[in-house]
C-alpha cells in the first residue's frame, strides 16, 4: 500500500485564527497540515501525508451542527482521504463535541475510517465513544507529545485496515464491543484466581468491567419559596474585579466565596469573568447575565423568595476535573447548609 492520505480537523485556536473571540469562525479548508498537523506529519513519515486541514470555530460548529457538517463533508471528500483525523481535543468540551460529531458524520457519509483523541472527562467521550474510535489523552495540550504519536499510530492501523487490538492495548476508550477469544484457562479458574488476588490485596483486572453510575438523589421540593433563603453558585467564573483569588481560567484548582450583601447589580466596574472557555465580552459588560443577582433581588422584593444569601460561590468549569468539582461542592455545600440555605441556583455559561 502506498502513502496514506489524511485529512485533519482542528479548531480555530490550533488553526492560528484566535481564541474565544474567533470561536464563530466558519469552516475553512487548507492544503497540507496546520497546527498539530505538523507533528502528525512528522510521526507519519513516509507512510502517510496530511493532504488537507479543515479549520472551524468551536462555537460555530456546535451552534450550527447541520450547516457545519454540510460544509465540511464536501471539503473532506474533495481530497479523497484514506483516514480522517480530528483533534486531539484533550478536555476542551466544545472542541471534543465537534471532533466526535464530524468523525461520526465521516464514518456514516464517506465510509472511511475516522479517529479522534480526548480526555476521559470531555463530554465528547460519553457522547461518541460507541460510534467513534477515541484515543485517550491527558487533560490539556501539555500531553500533546504523548498524544500525537499514539494518534498517528492508530490512524495508520485504521488506514491500512489492520486489526485493531483491545482498548487497553491500543489506548482508546471502550466502545462496548465484545469479541470471543480463546485463552488457556477456563472461566471458572480465571474467576477464582482473580478473587484470590483481590482478597490478598494484589493487583487484578476484571474481564467484564461494569459501568459506574454517579446517581444523585434529589432533595424534596422546597415547601415555601416565599420564605426560603436562596443562594447562587456558578461555574461561569464570575468574580470581583481583578479576580482576587486568582481562580484559573481553565482546570480550576479552587473556588471563591464572595459577599454580595446589599448588592443589587453586578456592574462592569466591580465584577468580571475569569472563565477562559467562552467569549467574556458580554459577561464582562454585565455579570448578571451569568450570575443573576439583579433578578434575584427583584424576586426578593416581590416576595417570591424569602431572601438571597449574602454569599455566592464561584469557580471556572472550563476543563475542571470532576474530582476537583466534587471536592469544591462538598466544602461549600456544608457551609450553605450551616447557613440555613434551602435552595441553590447553579448557573453555568
Provide tags for this entry.
5-stranded mixed β-sheet, 349 residues, 6-stranded mixed β-sheet, 11 helices, alpha/beta, single chain
**DSSP helical segment count:** 11
Q: What's the average pLDDT?
A: 92
Strand content: 15-25%
Element string (H = helix, E = strand): EEHEHHEHEHEHHHEEEEHHEEHE
Radius of gyration: 24 Å
Count of extended strands: 13
What does this entry look like structurally?
The protein is built from 11 helices and 13 strands. The protein is of the alpha/beta class. The protein has a 6-stranded mixed beta sheet with strand order 2-3-1-4-5-6, sandwiched between helices. Strands 7, 9, 11, 12 and 13 form a 5-stranded mixed beta sheet that branches. Helix 5 (123-128) links the parallel strand 5 (114-118) and strand 6. Helix 3 (65-78) packs across helix 4. The chain starts with a strand and ends with a strand.
Short description:
With 349 residues, the protein is of the alpha/beta class. It contains 11 helices and 13 strands.
What's the arrangement of secondary structure elements?
Elements: E1 4-11, E2 28-31, H1 37-44, E3 48-56, H2 58-63, H3 65-78, E4 83-90, H4 93-109, E5 114-118, H5 123-128, E6 133-136, H6 144-159, H7 167-170, H8 187-199, E7 229-234, E8 238-240, E9 256-259, E10 271-273, H9 281-285, H10 293-301, E11 307-308, E12 311-314, H11 322-338, E13 343-347
Parallel strand pairs: 1-3, 1-4, 4-5, 5-6, 7-11, 7-12, 7-13
Antiparallel strand pairs: 2-3, 8-10, 9-12
Helix pairs in contact: 1-6, 3-4
